[in-house]
Amino acid sequence: MSVRAVVLSLGALMLAACSMPTTVESELFPDVEIECGGESGLSADGCLTWAEQMISAAPSRAAGGGDISVTKVVLTFRSGNSRCAADYFAEDGRLMTTMSTRCPAP
Fold first, then answer.
1. Within 10 A of 48 (CB to CB), how many other CB atoms are there?
2. pLDDT the model gives residue 19
3. What pLDDT shows up at residue 94?
4. CA torsion, points 98, 16, 27, 33, in degrees to nearest 10?
5. SS3 sequence of the chain
6. What are the beta bridge partners of residue 75?
7. What residue spans define the domains of the chain?
């Protein structure tokens, strides 16, 4: 196998690992869908702990002032030098906001 083939194979494996999010369920927030992704290798327990912290701090109002419930949170562990982020979605699937966040320990 050539060096190029090995590099391409490793790159594909890393991309596949980064793109497969961990989905967890929270007893504290049973109506919120939770996904964690990125390159952390974060365990399901680590994802859940991080998610519950972030949901507790989630925005609950839209810019227009009406009540909006968060129904999905997608947490992304940094890739390279980027920051960790939390994406909050409303019931209609609309992205409410994205927040930069402190990364949990992997």
1. 20
2. 53
3. 92
4. 50
5. CCHHHHHHHHHHHHHHHHHCCEEECCCCCCCCEEEEEECCCCCHHHHHHHHHHHHHCCCCECCCCCECCEEEEEEEECCCCCCEEEEEEECCCCEEEEEEECCCCC
6. 36, 86
7. 21-101
Question: Which pLDDT score is estimated for 40?
Answer: 65
Taking the C-alpha atoms of residue 95 and residue 102, their distance in angstroms, rounded to an integer, is: 20
> Which residue ranges of the chain lie beneath pLDDT 70?
1-19, 40-41, 59-68, 79-81, 106
- The pLDDT score that the predictor gives to residue 36 is 92
| Residue for token pair 């327990």 | 45
Q: Rounded distance, CA 95 to CA 5, Å? A: 39
